[in-house]
Amino acid sequence: MIKTLRQKFIVIMMSIVSILLITIFLTIITIMSSSLKEQNTAKLRQLLQTGVLQDYSQGTFKGGTDSRVHALIVELKADGSYYIAANQFFFLEEGLIEDIVKAAALSKSDSGVLKEYSLRYLKYQTSTTLRIAFADTSVEAGIIKDLMLICGFICSMSLLAFFVLSVFLARWAVRPVENAWQRQKRFVADASHELKTPLTVILSNAEMLQSGENMDEKAQERVDNILAEGIRMKRLIENMLTLAKSDYAENTLVMSRVNLSDIILDSVLLYESAAYDDNKQLSFNVAEGVIVNGDADKLRQVIDILLDNALKYSNEGSQITVDLSVQYRREALVRVRSEGEAIPREELQNIFIRFYRVDKARENHGGFGLGLSIAEEIIRSHRGRIWAESDSSGNTFSFILPLSNH
């Protein structure tokens, strides 16, 4: 939980900073691009008014042999002929001026950019001619490109630096929660462990009293109640110890190549008699030879939890089905389906929370709301995933595990 909390803190902080940096740099680039456009358009406007190049220059152009126009003023007559009023250029290709004049003249806008020629143009109608001024935009584009590279580099370095900082900030911010969580886990583990000894003594004495003679019916009933509740409490303590160990991330798993098919079949055979006693049908469809890496005892515990839930919360005379199949040749899929009252869809995620119950009626089955939490912790420790589904006819609990690679 603490690790997930740190990760969420880092993701939120990095998202906020990323959005801010990207917004700032996009704003800078947009403002710079707009400013350059306005400056160059103003110079073109000056050229149109004077008809003289004066000191208009955008600097050195890229590619020594590439034909680029610094600035050009063309007078287009009514008959379609034109002449160059002023120019400042390197070597122009034959027919290039005619092409750009034609493209600009046909444009409906008085200003714009001829992208295929990297030229900005501005038109002005005189009394006898259409005056068109052109200016090369390659330097302008180069400035924007360089600015984008600089901003991208600064943004990347800033994000990297802030990521390192956010890791330390996450640890510092979550430390009080982590300390409280550790104290809570230690208390649960210690309290559960300390309760086992006196509870064992209580159960032993209750069993002795139960087997004794010369006890009236009322006293016998009380002893039976003590023993039943003691056993129930012992089961709760064992479940709490199991969860406490998983919280401490203790390496209690004995990992090896195990046959999941055999584990499921063994559990199904054990529960067949219980299903028969409850007037329920237990069927299975288990693929053979499904091998996974895991702890056999823990995986058997998961199957037992799901089968126990299916027996408790299914209707009398209903069908319980256990399936094992291989998905995409890389995952083992286990499904335990039971017919009964459907779990509301909005509750499907909550049922894996510790001590959570969908409704109070389920308390009559003697559970504590810890079984599914234990199953989830075991499957998660095996790098798998467990979930629940429901429909009008019943509920299905499923989990997947990666297959063994060797």
Short structural summary:
The two termini are 32 Å apart.
Radius of gyration: 39 Å
**Secondary structural class:** alpha+beta
Supply the CATH class of one domain: Alpha Beta
- Main β-sheet, in a few words? 5 strands, antiparallel
H-E string: HEEHEEEHHEHEEHEEHEE
**What count of helical segments does DSSP give?**
7
- The dominant shape is elongated
Q: Widest sheet: strand order? A: 2-1-5-4-3
Instruction: Catalogue the unreliable spans.
Output: 55-69
Beta percentage is 15-25%
The CATH architecture term of one domain is: 2-Layer Sandwich
CATH fold type of one domain: Heat Shock Protein 90
How many angstroms does the end-to-end distance come to? Answer: 32 Å
CATH superfamily of one domain: Histidine kinase-like ATPase, C-terminal domain
Give the fraction of residues assigned to helices: 40-55%
